[in-house]
Amino acid sequence: MEAIPQTYAEVRDAALACTMCRLSETRNNVVFGAGDPNARLMFVGEAPGKNEDLQGVPFVGAAGRLLDELLAGIGLARDDVYIANVLKCRPPGNRDPKPDEIDSCKGYLRSQIRMISPEVVVTLGNFATKLLVPTEIGITRMRGQRITSWWLGATLVPTFHPAAALRGRPSVRQDMEQDFTIVKELLDAGR
Ligand code: URA
């Protein structure tokens, strides 16, 4: 029987070699995650896009630049946080993740959350939020809440996906800025 991956490096190596779903056939790179593995704050996005797939790093495109700006607004940089996605491989054409792809991949995210053990988890958009908070409620109503998750051992703050702010109403960015101030409050209170 194969050993179950235990350490961060073992889980990452297992993900890098993963062929559990069809996305392994079309990916260029597995995008496992990036940042400080001891971070107090972790972000969970949806899935790698084109640039992320080419570079193997999450949030390197336009959505990533917005994420950097929102982080800077609360005095943080990318190196201070950890960033992962629900899916580690790019869905072709950036289509939505399929339920069986999420099922195949969710163990990696579960291991990441367990190992990083963040105090605050920010879910970016509907896919990350619905995976970590069993709810039918959409992100527009979920955003900005402080959800205590005993199984994550963290407070979860859902917000919009940065891509929604890039293509949507200007108020989406303002809402995200507000949600990031909640994150800062939580981090300041936990010190
Ligand atoms: N969108 C995501 O959800 N994740 C990325 O890594 C990039 C864009």
Describe this structure in words.
The chain has about 190 residues and is an alpha/beta fold. The chain has one domain: 3-Layer(aba) Sandwich (Uracil-DNA Glycosylase, subunit E). About 45% of the residues lie in helices and about 15% in strands. The protein is built from eight helices and six strands, in the order αββααβαβααββαα. The protein has helices spanning about 10-15, 50-55, 60-75, 100-115, 125-130, 140, 160-165, 170-190; strands at about 35, 40-45, 80-85, 120-125, 145-150, 155-160. The protein has a six-stranded mixed sheet, sandwiched between helices. β5 (about 145-150) and β6 form a beta hairpin. α1 (about 10-15) runs antiparallel to α4. The longest helix is centred in the last third of the chain and has 21 residues, at about 170-190. The radius of gyration is 16 Å and the shape is globular. The model has no long low-confidence stretch (mean pLDDT about 95). Bound molecules: uracil. Uracil (URA) binds near residues 47, 48, 52, 58 and 59. Uracil (URA) binds near residues 45, 46, 52 and 63.
Any key phrases for this structure?
191 residues; alpha/beta; Uracil-DNA Glycosylase, subunit E; 6-stranded mixed β-sheet; 8 helices; 6 strands; globular; binds uracil
